């Protein structure tokens, strides 16, 4: 009887281990950014017109894209105002915001609205807070206090 119990425990652990890998609760949330000529985008679009990676056409397209972005940056350096959000469907330009990604975030009860600049090199963003009971620092185990 003890062998049966031992084998049933091993079988149970194997079933739990295999089912844990298929459980969506163990996954993590995430998203990826891809440029238009990346391999994942090419697989989804299945378009033959996209240049092959490493080819002359590929680098020409990248240079063309860089020139367009540089042109937009130079165009913003004159006295025009760049784009931001306002109530309604209108879009305005503010030169001080630069070329970052922005999101409207509503947090708390009662809800407070923030315009947040997103850093594509990080998964964190900070909100301004003037409350006296907020966390002032975050300590990591064995690491520095942030």
Explain how this protein is built.
The mean pLDDT is 68. The protein is flat and about 80 Å long. The protein has helices at residues 2-22, 39-45, 56-76, and strands spanning 84-85, 91-92, 101-107, 112-118. The chain has 146 residues and is of the alpha+beta class.
Helix-strand category: alpha+beta
Strand arrangement, largest sheet? 1-2
Distance between the termini: 56 Å
Number of strands: 4
SSE order, one letter for each helix or strand: HHHEEEE
Q: Give the number of helices.
A: 3
Q: What is the share of helical residues?
A: 25-40%
The percentage of residues in β strands lies in 5-15%
The backbone outline, from C-alpha atoms, is flat
Q: SSE layout and pairings?
A:
Blueprint: H1 2-22, H2 39-45, H3 56-76, E1 84-85, E2 91-92, E3 101-107, E4 112-118
Antiparallel strand pairs: 1-2, 3-4
Family: Belongs to the peptidase A1 family.
InterPro entries: Aspartic_peptidase_A1 (IPR001461), Aspartic_peptidase_AS (IPR001969), PEPTIDASE_A1 (IPR033121), Peptidase_aspartic_dom_sf (IPR021109)
Domain Peptidase A1: 101-146
Any key phrases for this structure?
146 residues; two-stranded antiparallel ribbon; 4 strands; Aspartic_peptidase_A1; Peptidase_aspartic_dom_sf; aspartic-type endopeptidase activity
């Amino acid at each position: 009887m003890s062998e049966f119990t031992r084998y049933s425990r091993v079988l149970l652990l194997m079933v739990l281990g295999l089912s844990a890998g298929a459980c969506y609760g163990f996954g993590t949330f995430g998203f990826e950014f891809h440029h238009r000529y990346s391999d994942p985008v090419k697989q989804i679009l299945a378009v033959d017109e996209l240049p092959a990676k490493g080819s002359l056409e590929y680098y020409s397209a990248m240079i063309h894209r860089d020139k367009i972005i540089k042109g937009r940056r130079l165009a913003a350096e004159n006295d025009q105002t760049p784009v931001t959000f306002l109530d309604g469907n209108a879009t305005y330009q503010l030169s001080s915001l630069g070329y970052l990604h922005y999101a409207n975030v509503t947090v708390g009860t009662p809800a407070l609205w923030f315009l947040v600049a997103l850093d594509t090199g990080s998964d964190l963003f900070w909100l301004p807070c003037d409350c006296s009971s907020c966390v002032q620092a975050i300590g990591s185990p064995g690491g520095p206090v942030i």
